[in-house]
Design brief:
Layout: E1 9-12, H1 18-29, E2 33-38, H2 41-51, E3 58-62, H3 68-78, E4 83-86, H4 101-111, H5 113-129, E5 132-137, H6 150-170, E6 175-182, H7 188-201, H8 205-213, H9 224-234, E7 246-249
Parallel strand pairs: 1-2, 1-4, 2-3, 4-5, 5-6, 6-7
Length: 258
């Protein structure tokens, strides 16, 4: 299927590795010109070289999403874009006793505020051009909160709520806002979780990874290509009538109806 987005420009936040990079690969494969963002200039340059093999234009913006200076740099250097993929690393697992005032603010600064401010910056241009696709990478735990991930879940749930509100206003101009809710996609985040289990339980890496995979109905990790391709579809011309939605990419693990 031709997704109808060849030649469009996508800004993908936190895209030097993991889920952001997966989206970059899938969009570049559809002929979309890519703007990468991250905080490590060397990693960005390496990824840009990889993506150039798709025959698309690739630019990089080395800036920190969590600072106003960084966001200003992203907005200024990106220019007019057609697709925005909001992404950022979440806070570490923890418990209520760990979540003091500073921790709460840090989670919101990482997983809600940057995405909202970037939408605020880029949506007016998208509306004027009558095309815009925004995908927020959140978490399956927005719908199924886990005690250890309450900090991440709460900030991402706030982003989910405000995105739903905005989506109703901008749909008339062919601008869509959707959320991808990953669970156990095989990225460096899952390696971090495996290492944490290894240290806590004194087991080897294979056993730790299997323990994680066993929490998924499909009994395996999701692939980055599966995730990236889901993002690409939500950015497609064909997805213009899908907005304000939460797409679970979780191997069938979600137990609810809606």
């Amino acid at each position: 299927m031709d997704l109808g987005i060849r030649g469009k420009i996508a800004l993908i936040c936190a895209s030097s590795q993991g889920l952001g990079l997966a989206c970059a690969h899938s969009l570049a494969g559809e002929g979309v010109n890519i703007i990468l963002n991250g905080r490590d200039e060397a990693k960005l340059a390496k990824v840009a070289d990889e993506l150039a093999d798709y025959g698309v234009e690739v630019r990089t913006i080395c800036a920190d999403l969590m600072t106003q200076e960084g966001r200003d740099a992203i907005i200024a250097q990106a220019g007019d874009i057609d697709i925005l993929v909001n992404n950022n690393a979440g806070p570490p697992p923890g418990h209520l006793k760990d979540w003091d005032h500073a921790a709460l603010l840090s989670a919101i600064e990482a997983n809600m505020i940057p995405a909202v401010l970037l939408m605020r910056a880029f949506i007016p241009g998208m509306r004027e051009r009558k095309f815009g696709r925004i995908v927020n990478i959140t978490s399956a735990m927005v719908k199924s909160p886990h005690p250890l991930m309450g900090l991440s879940t709460s900030a991402r749930a706030g982003l989910t709520a405000i995105s739903k509100a905005i989506s109703r206003d901008v749909a008339i101009d062919n601008v869509t806002i959707n959320n991808l809710l990953p669970e156990r996609i095989d990225t460096p985040r899952q390696e971090f979780m495996a290492q944490r289990i290894m240290a806590q339980q004194g087991i080897d890496r294979d056993a730790a990874r299997q323990q994680i995979a066993d929490t998924v109905a499909a009994k395996r990790f999701g692939t980055t290509k599966e995730f990236g391709d889901a993002c690409a579809y939500l950015c497609s011309a064909q997805a213009g009538f899908i907005s304000g939605q939460n797409l679970q990419v979780d191997g069938g693990s979600y137990e609810g109806l809606i």
